[in-house]
Write a structure and sequence with these properties.
Two copies of one chain form a homodimer. Chain A contains ten helices and three strands, in the order ααβααββαααααα. Chain A is mainly alpha-helical. Chain A has two domains: about 70 residues, Arc Repressor Mutant, subunit A (Orthogonal Bundle); about 140 residues, Up-down Bundle (Four Helix Bundle (Hemerythrin (Met), subunit A)), CATH 1.20.120.530. A three-stranded antiparallel beta sheet of chain A has the order 1-3-2. The interface between A and B is large, with 44 and 44 residues. The structure holds a DNA duplex.
DNA sequence: CTTTGCCCGATTGTTCAACAATCCGACGAT
DNA sequence: ATCGTCGGATTGTTGAACAATCGGGCAAAG
């Protein structure tokens, strides 16, 4: 009886979470706003975020800003220096390797597990999105398409947890890119790789796809390390 | 110059983080206390955590408890139901598979990368710890040793991020175990597996070690799913 | 001229009190 | 028995307050 109660309880809870019509808490909205500014490069790595300033800028209480900071800190987008304030996270050399270690683990694992046809189609869609952006000389679109591509690969696994981990990693990398401007042809060279990986995936040659992806990630890390301080 | 400044700044920041002599914020201590109670099963899945109660129990402000909740929610140990309160997370069938998907990704990836001799030694130490606990009929020790074993495997990769992800996943599983009491011989059957994996790792046969580990995780997931509601 | 020590302003960490919004359960009407 | 309605309890959010801590500037000492 207790088990059925618990089951019913969590089922309702899940339904509520699904049906909920977008009433995010104020702290969540503040966090979302800051996330946006971080992604767009309005807030650059190393920048300081003063509680009172943000509080009055956004018209909310300082305590609320504080809660938003906790969210962002948990996502590593921001670091807290006790008694000194919070600063936009700034990745250093070691972090690059660390981030790519995570990406190798979850992306390769996901692609080697294959995925439903719809999810494979999502990967293909990201490839096409990249080609379209390249044709239109849309550099920002190229970057987004690339992130969609890798996000779609992880989504193959169909794991909520892996998806959130990946999205956080991508957010970190986005932050990182703002530090050193990427040259115009940065992503363009990866388009053929993406397509080849996608081809292998569609052909069901998962081992090969995994190897290609792994090689891609290694090359990408090398390039990132070279571009930045090192 | 700005780059050197930034580098110096983060270097100092890292040093400060390393040297800091344990002055965790109050919110952090509250979170730690709750984490402990969660791990020990004092707080069972589904239980409600009332802000005011915890606040006066621990002698801190409600806002501080709130911040601690944010930490725990980010770690998925607790779920927030808006306007209703926070509840100890309770994993359901789907979550088991999800958690094991994450474990497969990061543990297999880590072991296939090998690791420094010291880190391999740490894996061996966890195996011995398990054998000692088995000899002493220490069931709780067996469980801990098993978690140390898998933690040590992930630590092979030497990635801060992977380590924290793994520790969070292990915390989630710990929570999960409290739901259905595990029978006395639950872990004992895994001891030979652990040793065999460790042997392969020490022998440098990483592919084999990876396969063994993967098989182990699949079996483990199957068993967990069977034990619990299904 | 450099270094040491000290103090001051600014910001964070934490608490407290208050109020609106929301939810749960009980009570009562139909 | 079902459905509204109401009241109590808890959360969400705010504002203000105070101690603790930090960084920088200034002055004194070497």
């Amino acid at each position: 009886m207790t088990t059925s109660d618990a089951a019913a309880g969590s089922a309702l809870g899940a339904a509520a979470a699904r049906l909920r019509v977008a009433v995010p808490s104020v702290a969540d909205r503040v966090a979302a706003e800051l996330r946006l500014q971080l992604a767009e490069g309005v807030l650059l790595p190393g920048a300081r975020l003063t509680e009172s300033t943000i509080a009055e800028d956004l018209g909310v209480s300082r305590n609320t800003v504080r809660e938003a900071f906790a969210e962002l800190a948990a996502e590593r987008l921001v670091v807290r220096h006790p008694n000194r304030g919070v600063f936009v996270a700034s990745l250093e050399a070691g972090d690059i390797h660390d981030v790519y270690t995570v990406r190798r683990a979850i992306e390769v694992s996901a692609i080697r597990g294959g995925g439903s046809p719809e999810r494979v189609a999502a990967v293909r869609a990201a490839v096409e999105e990249g080609k379209a952006a390249a044709a239109a000389n849309d550099e920002e679109g190229l970057g987004n398409a690339n992130q969609h591509f890798h996000g779609a690969i992880v989504a193959l696994a169909g794991s909520r947890r892996l998806d959130t981990i990946m999205s956080q990693v991508l957010a970190e990398m986005r932050l990182f890119f703002h530090k050193a401007t990427v040259d115009a042809h940065f992503y363009r060279g990866y388009l053929p790789d993406n397509e080849e990986i996608c081809n292998a995936l569609e052909a069901g040659d998962l081992d090969h796809a995994g190897e290609l992806l792994l090689a891609y990630l290694n090359r990408s890390e090398e390039r990132q390390s070279a571009v930045h301080g090192e």
